[in-house]
Amino acid sequence: MAQIENLIPRWQNLLHHLYLKMDFMSGEELAELLQVNARTIRSDIKSINEIFSKEGNQIVSVRGKGYQLQLRYESVFLKLLAPSKEERFNLQVIPSLAQDRIPYIIRYLLLQNDFVKLDTLAEELYVSKSTINSDMVDVKRKLAECSLILSKRAGYGVKIEGSEMNMRFCFSKYLLSDSVSLLVSDEEQTFFGEIDLRNIQNIILTSLAEYKVQMTDMAVKNLIIHVAIAIRRIKNQQYVEQNELQGLEFNIQELRAVQKMIQEIERLESIQFPESELTYILLHVCSKHVLQSYNGYREVILVHKMLAEIKRQYGYDFSSHQQFIAHLALHLKPAINRIKFNMNIHNPYLSNIKRNYPLAFEFGLLAREVLTEELNQAINEDEAGYMAMHFLYALSEEPNNRKKRVLLVCASGIGTAKLLEIKIKKLFDTEIEIIGSCSLYKYQKNKQEADFVISTVPIEASKHAYVQVTPFLSKADIRGIERLLEKDENRATFNPISLFFSKKYFTILEGKRTKEQILTTLANKFEVEGNVQASFLKSVKERENIVATYLGNGLAAPHPISADVKETKIAVCITKEPIIWNEEGDEVQIILMLAVKNKEQEQLSTVYEIISQIVEIPKLAKEIREVEDFEAFIRILEYVKT
User: Fold this and answer.
1) What residues does the PTS EIIA type-2 domain cover (predicted)?
2) 34 in the Ramachandran plot: left (φ > 0), alpha (ψ -120 to 50) or beta?
């Protein structure tokens, strides 16, 4: 085998660039990267090929294209270029793309825990110093998200500074983001060097099992990494302060499990965990413990506040769904610890929930608002996504279990109304919820929300389906109510496309537009028709500021946080030029602005299904972008619906 000393540093750099690119690179490009001339590159490649020929690998040269590395035996090449296992691991993870360099730089600086010169970073990443200077802008922004700063000292370089807790959360965020395995991988073991991750994994699993602390596989993997980070930092005498962990809530089984695992890890790693570090590990256990029961009422009270707000804004009533309430309360107990201590939590299902289950996600965002107000602390989208998953479960059962909201109309006073209410509750308690009673005059004058009406008097031009009964509910009256319930359950399927989409709310725009212009254009269409108030646009923008409504495949569905809407409608805008919709730079050409009347969200289920298909099927989105008129747009929606 060729000797590593035969590869001078410049040759190693040249090979590294070719290996990362794995495509043709011109001599001029390589010369600029290595700060030599093209003639030197040709000479270097000739010398390298003399060594490579013995190993079956080579650098090929093609006129007009440049040079390309061709590997027949990649493992031999890696051993030649980086003989140690740790060097080979670093070689395989050093990024070639700009967006991948930022996490790498953050990990590198956290590991050094001292000032690092930009020249050193440039050499480590095989890029120019000017490139590193440009990357530092994004590095600072990402560190600020973790409440850390990037300090700079002339002659010394840059260094990450902040609290030890935030340092560790940042470390785990940018280490676990690359983890695809729920078990300890060879790469992770190499990354942590002498720290025995696999034995730590066994200790953690045994300790959790002994004290019956249940955690998801993802949470266990997260805990292993945090323990490894703690060990490395403790060995460098970098400790979490006890005052950073004040207010932690835990139970005795969680404490005993952590005490057990720390005792074993101390023996394994020949290390001493101070009390603050034990509390730090306890934080990770109690914030991800999947509880089976709860012994307090704070979380239940919080859930009921969330449900009350959802009922007020959307008309959905989950208050009788006891199993759902219990599950959400159990979720909140560890979640509150995560939120209080600004812990990183990644929700791998978030994009799917936002794209395919927008109503459940809206409920999750509303629940987040309630929790934010109660805890007086910012809560990220990932937590909202996890709460949305609980609402998705409730919504899946809700249509079959929800009572019909019924309004009583009585012309002969409160006594008659109460008598009728008692009889209806006695006969239809599991099917009907009486939401109120009123006179015929009040019913005709005021806006009322109900599934249908039971009236003791005839109603001309009723705004709802209704049945007329006597206050004493005869058998004929009961059959009339039963028929109305049956009709409501099996009523002919209405066409949501013709109901919610209208030509007057449809537009195709040529030329460049901004997101602000599109939102204003669509909101103005609603306002001109008298369907919404002037505050509608402001609420839409507020919703966008909370979470941009980009769903994927060039489609966005903006809507207000709350609004007084006269009639549920969807305004459509198709732009011939893409619009930048969010900070991530996602481009949009199909905009569906939703104006939903209170308590009518459930009627949009078919529309949500169509939106999901547009997001999932690129060909469908392409067809919509290319339509020339409203009729062509509707034909596509009708086709998707069927």
Assistant:
1) 499-640
2) alpha
